[in-house]
């Protein structure tokens, strides 16, 4: 009896500790952001949201995040396919390097991109000869977003390719289907949930990127000033309500994306 009570108390304590962790480190900060953004009233919140620089920063962030997500969907899917379906020297090393953006501090990633695209680099000199610059323009922001979100699609697609039943492909080939037809009608539908969930996570991550972007963006209002850098500027200007208002927009987008990812995954499991 005493051992049973001890087990119950241990289980209750463990669950309480986990719930306390979520409340203190996740729920309370989120509620704090929403509360601070509305602390001066709804009209002030809307004024901060409709501020031209804020609105342009949010729209620019969404546009560039979408572009980087599309790139990651294409490149990430192809990378996952190559890493799973082909054997070649250095495959394990490449597979381990996929997670490098997760482990690398984003400021270091920004510095790497800065050095790669700078005016004294090979890429920078080549671009200047062609009459354009990459650094401190929107292409540099897209490259930074692609780098920090690169693993999401790959890691979401790889398990689906590993679990895929090869008999479906063999049956398609037996029935006379070409490789292209088999890919579009058999393989791609199996990979699609992973592609979509990975893309949505990559999009959500790109929306909030700061460290890698701030070093290469140039932060020109209306042209290269993205939402996260705008929020940082508002904090430095002692405008916390304006910063939290834009933060609420990004946070709401992230919530919607995470809900959609969970919905897609649940449909996949139930289907």
Automatic annotation (TrEMBL):
GO cellular component: plasma membrane
Domain of life: Bacteria
PROSITE patterns: ABC_TM1 (PS50928)
Alphabetical list of Pfam families matching this protein: BPD_transp_1
Record-linked InterPro entries: CysT_permease, MetI-like, MetI-like_sf, ModB_ABC, Sulph_transpt2
ABC transmembrane type-1 domain sequence ranges: 58-259
Parts of the chain that traverse the membrane: 12-34, 54-84, 96-118, 130-154, 210-232, 244-264
Alphabetized UniProt keyword annotations: Cell membrane, Membrane, Molybdenum, Sulfate transport, Transmembrane, Transmembrane helix, Transport
Membrane topology listed for this record: Multi-pass membrane protein
Localization terms from the record: Cell membrane; Membrane
GO molecular function, one term: ABC-type sulfate transporter activity
Alphabetical list of PANTHER family matching this protein: SULFATE TRANSPORT SYSTEM PERMEASE PROTEIN, SULFATE TRANSPORT SYSTEM PERMEASE PROTEIN CYSW
Role played: Part of the ABC transporter complex CysAWTP (TC 3.A.1.6.1) involved in sulfate/thiosulfate import. Probably responsible for the translocation of the substrate across the membrane.
Family to which this protein belongs: Belongs to the binding-protein-dependent transport system permease family. CysTW subfamily.
Quaternary state and interactors: The complex is composed of two ATP-binding proteins (CysA), two transmembrane proteins (CysT and CysW) and a solute-binding protein (CysP).
Protein's name according to its UniProt entry: Molybdenum transport system permease
Species of the source: Cohnella herbarum
Gene name of the encoded protein: cysT
